[in-house]
Amino acid sequence: MITKQAIALWAALVWIILAANVYAVQLEPAKWSVTELETGKNFTREVTDGDLNTMVTLQDPAGLVIDLGQSCVLQRVFLCGGRHKMMLWPNAYDHRDNPPLGLIVAFVGDSADTTRQVAEFTVPYDAGDPIDTQVDMRFQPASGRYVRLELKTKVHWGKEYWPGYTISNAPKPIHADWNVSEVELYGFSGVKAQLKDDAVVLDKGAAAPLALAAEDLSYYLGELTGKPHPVITPDEVALYPGTLYRIMDLKPLAPTYEVMLVNQQAGNLPDGVNVEREGREVLFRAWPYRCVLWSVWEFLERQGVRWLYPDAHGDFVPVGQGVSLKMLPLKVTPSARSIYANWDTSALEPWPPWMKQATLQGYLYPWRNHWNCSWGNGPLGGAEIPVLKAPAAALNDDYKEGFDGYPHNFNAVLPDRILQAHPDWYGYSTRAGKRGPGTAFCMSDPQLIAWVADKMVAVNQAAPLAVKHPLNLRHFDRAYNLLPTDASSYCQCDRCTAVNEKEQDNTVPWVRLYKRSMSSYYSLVCGVANAVKTRAPDITVGALAYADVFLPPSQIGRFPDNVQVEVCMYGAPNLPMSSPRNAGMKKVLEAWHAKCRRLTTYDYALLHIDYWQKDPRLPVPMVTATVERANYLYRLGALDGGCQATPESFPYNPWNFYAYSRIRWNVSQPAPQLLREFFTGYFQEASAPMLAYYQALEDHLLAHDVSLHFQGYCYGITPGSFPISVLAVMKKDLEAAEQRAKSWVVKERVARMREGFDWVIAESGLKGVELTDLSGYPKIGAGTNNIELKKMGKPGGNVSGNFTGLNKNGEWCFWSQGHIAQQLNFTQGGNYTVTVAARSVPYENISPIMNVFIGANGSQLTVDATEWHEYSFTTTVPAGVWNMVISYSNAATGGRRNMFIKEIRVVRQD
Predict the structure, then answer these.
(1) 3-class SS letters over 311-377
(2) φ/ψ of residue 70, rounded to 5
(3) Is CB count within 10 Å lower at the N or C end of the chain?
(4) Which of 761, 715, 712, 714 is nearest to 734 (CA)?
(5) Which band of pLDDT confidence, cut at 50, 70 and 90, is reported for residue 888?
(6) pLDDT-derived band of residue 10, with 50, 70 and 90 as boundaries?
């Protein structure tokens, strides 16, 4: 937990002056001189003023020499170009063949000429000319008075650099200039900085995950204590009389899979977080290597370090606080074993980490914050785990596809060639009147169920999961999955129809309101599970509660113990499970909990954008709901799972990404703690007004039960989500944050919040609208209040458009996606009856559905009259300005189903 003392220290020392022997922070720019390498021109003011609008352009060959004025110990160099490169760099796979533009190299030494190289950075292929990019290089503490930074564009690419192997047609060297806007140096000064005292001990030639653990310890222990903590080898420990932090390699205890298991059972290979103390040594002793990294990061977190955002300034360190060892021995078992980042975490690295490149801090962000698997294994290792030898028997060719594929793998379970050989196994389509391709295979066929069970046992014998993915590092490889494909059409034969559920209500809104659960699917799952249970008791059969198979089948009382069901998390993610809007989801989860012993979850909470909403700027506060939801799932034993995400939303909703994985690692953290530590570290001097900005919106959404779930899987501006009164408070807090932001880092972060706020204003049709003076809004008081239709407007915010218009008769005509709105000032709270005079043009015997909202409260009305008819409902409205929204939600193709409105009345009832 971050202490009040640490918070105050951080807020006061954003650009702290480095006193000798005290703090390991950014060295004070005022004591530097920065000179161009070629011309000798001084650029100190331009590159240390904290203003991204001022910069220098260095001509190729380009470089800077920094005179620190005294001998210091350096451990980090940061520099950047202009403002436009502050966003995340995409690491798109289709650009991996494009060569980098060069290297930026850092040297440290006792004179401008006699320096040694300490780090280098690969310049991304799209950094432009002049080159304009962020550079963050952390390195082993290096002593010297001078720092030399050079751009090298004439690089011989190949094995040592990009692409990491020898190439015959190397790209020609280029010439490019270089923009530098800000330079920051981090390190230590004074006598204490030069002394050998504490150190991190790492075996020579250690594996990459262990080397990364040592690097992180070295850097952050330095910042915490104000003195260097170099990484040394075991034969150097006599030179360092202080505390030794030893990264232990337990690989010798796991020469084979069988020996590893024996040593695990004996306690010689502790997993999870394990930090011990022996005399003056702190031992990070865990297995496999990912557990060593988790141990280092947990230890640093106990010192107050936090990783808040995936960029070079994304960490928070209570500088100079020192290190406490009181918590040792430190052992932690995460609340969730699997915290699966179901998104491309490599998108956070501006450029692949080629050989000799400094570790990129953005890339480490998800792993430090306890995501423990993703589309790749990231920096956590895994190769150190010995392979379990499989039997020599060859796998039947019929089974060669195995059970690969996630989250949909029916095509691998029963590929077309197998179905062609067994045509009776094809699914039956009532529309086609026959069995054949295009419909999921018949899941009630006993022979098919037996074949799948035989395949599962055979695959498990030939290549157990431990062989493919040792110790089950990846979330989706813990079970032999039977996962339906997207938009499956299920077999409709008499046998399957008899097994399937009748239509039943589904109160969980999402992409579609599926009204039935195809129980034939779960009959297949249970049939296979029962068939393999005695033959291979180590097998777990995986199923996915999704779409038409989302609802738990009522005819199956209890699933076999070897079945794992992964339940899709629908509902309203920004609201707690206790919300009435999540009542349906909660009911489904509890029904699954009663039926199945093993549950995991497939989440969409961090999927901020999709087809229906392509803009990532909408502010979505859901830390409180995320914490409550995690605790609820933990109680059900269903906390393990993965979440899809859209990293494009990182700059606008960083709090959600921060909280999601952290609460799954440790569910005992209350939401106020996560919010406090995030806003304190991320917004620094502007933290108080920015937390108030966030809290104003989250408090409103929670108090009024407003879901931000839009259409598809995204978030959007929904009825009642951004009332005038809340926007007014948010605007005031945002302006206060803009006034308090002093450093360029915080200014950039607050600017992203301004983008989000202005986007809401524009999309809500409130640009230039008064937020504090309510006198201009139509007043709704006692008696009958007639709404002027011509004053209602057409908001944007829907990618499919808003097809509605006011005709010559003064009537609103609704076509596809039509919706209209108007801000109304309810001078008194109370019960109000809303009456709408409407008529419809039905299509295919389906009438238009009209949604009428006042703020977040509303009603859904079926406009089934083809002549003018009045439709009414009564709702409770608090006093204040609320947006009345009328929308039309079930249009037919080509605008064949229409709705017309000619009058709206609002009558106060008490």
Answers:
(1) CCCCEECCCCCCCCCCCCCEEECCCCCCEEEECCHHHHCCCCCCCCCCCCHHHHHHHHCCCCECCCC
(2) -160, 165
(3) C
(4) 761
(5) confident
(6) very low
- Decide: 664 and 638 in contact? Cβ < 8 Å: no
Indicate the residue type of 689. P
Which pLDDT belongs to residue 473? 78
Q: Going along 373-509, which residue ranges are E strands?
A: 428-429, 434-435, 480-481
The answer, yes or no, to whether residue 302 has pLDDT greater than 50, is yes
From 267-281, 387-401, 836-850, the region with the lowest mean pLDDT: 387-401
Name the average pLDDT for the chain.
90
Rounded to an integer, the average pLDDT of 526-549 is 95
CB 62 within 8 A of CB 356: no
Write out the H or E segment, with its range, that includes residue 860: strand 857-862
The helices-and-strands tally (H runs, E runs) of the chain is: 20, 36
Q: What is the CATH number of domain 195-368?
A: 3.30.379.10
Question: Is the CB of residue 273 less than 8 Å from the CB of residue 295?
Answer: yes
d(CA 274, CA 329): 7
| Choice among 80-94, 278-292, 410-424 with the minimum mean pLDDT | 80-94
Rg (CA), the chain: 31
Mean pLDDT of 379-395: 87
Q: What is the pLDDT of residues 614-652, one digit of tens each?
A: 899 999 999 999 999 999 999 999 999 999 999 999 999
Strands (E) in 81-134, as ranges, are 102-109, 115-123
- For the cut 90, the answer to whether the pLDDT of residue 167 exceeds it is no
Q: Quick check: helix, strand or coil at residue 194? A: helix
d(CA 142, CA 358): 15
pTM for this prediction: 0.92
CATH topology agreement for domains 4-191 and 195-368: no
- Whether the link from the prior residue into 130 is cis, omega within 30° of 0, is yes
pLDDT interval class at 510 (50, 70, 90): low
- Angle, helices 671-683 vs 623-636, to 10°: value is 140
The conformation of residue 391, written as its DSSP 8-state character, comes to P
Name which of 745, 622, 668 is nearest 1 in CA terms. 668
Cβ-contact 302, 327 below 8 angstroms: yes
CA-to-CA distance for 135 and 518, rounded, in angstroms?
54
**In angstroms, rounded to a whole number, what is the distance separating the alpha carbons of residues 94 and 88?**
17
640 close to 656: Cβ distance less than 8 angstroms? no
The structural domains of the chain, with segments of one domain joined by +, span: 4-191, 195-368, 775-908
**Mean pLDDT, rounded, for 295-313:** 96
Q: What is the 3-state secondary structure (H, E, C) of 229-253?
A: CCEECHHHHHHCCCCEEEECCCHHH
Q: Where are the beta strands (DSSP E) in 37-114?
A: 56-58, 62-80, 102-109
Beta carbons of 198 and 141 less than 8 angstroms apart: no
Contacts of 670 (CB under 8 A, 6+ apart): 627
Tell me what pLDDT residue 177 has: 93
pLDDT of residue 6: 37
241 C-beta neighbours (distance < 10 Å), count: 13
Q: Which two tokens stand for residue 730?
A: 């948010």
pLDDT at 896: 86
- Place domain 4-191 in its CATH homologous superfamily: Galactose-binding domain-like (2.60.120.260)
pLDDT at 666 (0 to 100): 97
DSSP 8-29: HHHHH-TT----TTT--EEPPG
- Contacts with 128 (C-beta within 8 Å, 6 or more apart), sequence order: none
Cα–Cα dist 455/449, whole Å: 10
**C-beta of residue 880 within 8 angstroms of C-beta of residue 724:** yes
Query: Can you tell me the distance from the alpha carbon of 177 to that of 130, in angstroms, rounded to the nearest whole number?
Result: 4
What beta strand segments (E) does 4-59 contain?
A: 25-26, 33-36, 56-58
Under CATH, what is the fold of the domain 775-908? Jelly Rolls (2.60.120)
CB 604 within 8 A of CB 612: no
CA distance 857 to 813: 23
